[in-house]
Amino acid sequence: MVLDKLGSSLKDTLSKIAKSMFVDEKVVNELVKDIQRALLQADVNVKLVFELSKNIKKRALEDKPPGGVSQREYLVKIVYEELVKFLGGEKNEIKIDKSQKPFKIMMVGLFGSGKTTSISKLAKYYMQRGFKVATMGLDVHRPAAPLQLKQLSDKLKLTCYIDEKEKDALKIYKKFEKELNKFDLVLVDTAGRDALSDDLVKEIKELNDYIKPQEKLLVLSADIGQTALKQAESFHESCGVTGVIVTKLDGTAKGGGAISACSATNAAIKFIGVGEKPDDLEVFNPKGFVGRLLGMGDIEALLEKAQYALDQDKVEDLGKKLLKGDFNFLDLYEQMEAMGKMGSLSKIVDMIPGLGGAKIPKGMLEGQEDKLKKWKIIMQSCTKEELEDPSLLNRNRIDRIAEGAGVEVSEVRQLLKQYKQSKKMMKMMKGSEDPQKLMKKFKGKMPKGMGF
To answer: In 10 A of CB 371, how many CB atoms?
Structure first.
């Protein structure tokens, strides 16, 4: 979960409100102090923390809840709305017009902030949406940078323009400039830099003036801390940053410094990096982000992941099979593959309304992920015939599969048990597209141990 510690602190704070018999000035003051403490511990800028808490306190004491809403519920709503406003309010997507070729995004940032990796993630994001993408390496100061960008681009089968011998970034751009018109989008990598270095700041100004990119994205690592504010301001002065990508939000870094820096520079967060995989990049949606922090979920992000992780033809085919009560190991395998593409279980759980605040132990979720990985290996040791008809699995076949997969026999039997339970569930669902009828069927008949 992104900003895990901050999220836990805010959830605990809101749970105190839920337990309060009534809401008065004392409760509001305690709430504000708890929020201040949580945000300051997450490295959010002090001045911004006090501005935010002042707004929450003012609204909590002066606003009256609308009819049918309790004071406690309204207080939670105020906290949610003020945090969303603090993080930019509405989602700020980059809209690319294919008629204006090429749309150019120039990436800037410190050494080690994750610019090059973010370029590959951005490239995949826009490729999935039907854009023809190319990359260009203008980092002439770090010897391995052009090669790293080339390798990441090759994995995605992207055209990558680099010149490892040339040490003038602008000359490299001019060399390939005419070829860029073939693409909808060009992602430009620049040198990682210390914002106080005059020669590098001069270089980025020159590149910006010549390239005239439609977007200039500052890449900030979540572990940058309070120095994020100064760095963001310096980059903004050098090229007029139009947006920010915050990386490494899946780690132990506090992250508040990088996020609050954007509030101070008026450059909206456009994307967040939540993992190492090419798919671990999300459009930053303040409403969904705060929803996850407070345990309210982010159904929009979940649907977005599902849309691009799943093969729509397979989804429709599986849906038909489920309604018929027809379900085999191959279908179970497809489900597990889809879950893997959508990300870790902990990330998916955070996006589901109601489950994000359920405080499911991380160890439990990690244990389930390990189990899923083993089950996939077991299925890969099955024959096609066994996958299509798991009822064929007798003792001899189970022993053979266990030996081939390098697992215990009990683990194969556990998978078989899960399949039988899933199949039973599918039979109960057969022909029941009406939710109310479906609930009547399930009442008192839920198979024990259902779920992964």
So the answer is: 15
Instruction: For residue 83, give the 3-state DSSP assignment.
Output: helix
For 153-157, 264-268, 273-277, which range has the lowest pLDDT when averaged over its residues? 264-268
Q: What is the model's pLDDT at position 162?
A: 93
The CATH number covering residue 225 comes to 3.40.50.300
**257 and 324: one domain?**
no
CA distance 232 to 392: 62
Using the Cα atoms of residue 152, residue 157, residue 160 and residue 163 in order, give the sign of their dihedral.
Answer: positive
Given 86, 118, 148, the domain boundary residue is 86
Q: Are residues 108 and 249 in the same domain?
A: yes
Name the H helices within 278-408: 286-293, 299-309, 312-324, 329-342, 345-351, 362-380, 384-388, 395-405
Q: Is residue 450 part of a domain?
A: no
Cα gap 280→122, rounded to integer Å: 10
Q: Looking at the structure, do residues 236 and 358 belong to the same domain, yes or no?
A: no
Better-scored residue on pLDDT, 248 or 209: 209
pTM over the 0.70 mark: no
> To which residue do tokens 């890969």 refer?
380
pLDDT of residue 358: 44
What distance in Å separates the CA atoms of residue 45 and residue 278, rounded to the nearest whole number? 30
Q: Is the pLDDT of residue 113 over 60?
A: yes
**Position of tokens 């105190």?**
16
Quick: pLDDT tens for 344-381: 555 555 554 444 444 545 544 455 667 777 888 898 89
> 150 and 181 share a domain?
yes
Among the listed residues 273, 271, 275, the one whose alpha carbon sits nearest the alpha carbon of residue 341: 275
d(Cα 171, Cα 173) in Å, to the nearest integer? 5
In this structure, the number of other CB atoms found within 10 A of the CB of residue 418 comes to: 17
Q: Would strands 133-138 and 243-247 be described as parallel, antiparallel, or unpaired?
A: unpaired
Closest by Cα among 330, 323, 335 to 428: 323
The DSSP element (H or E) to which 245 belongs, if any, is strand 243-247
Q: Please tell me whether residues 153 and 233 are part of one structural domain.
A: yes
Q: pLDDT by residue (tens digit) across 208-223?
A: 999 999 999 988 887 7
In the DSSP assignment, the letter for residue 95 is: P
Same domain, 315 and 391: yes
The answer to whether residues 259 and 273 touch, using CB atoms and an 8 Å cutoff, is no
- Read off the CATH number of the domain in which 11 is found: 1.20.120.140
CB 273 within 8 A of CB 281: yes
Give the structural domain span for 331.
304-442
Q: Are residues 327 and 253 in the same domain?
A: no
What tokens appear for 43 in the block?
């490295």
Report percent pLDDT > 70 for the chain.
69
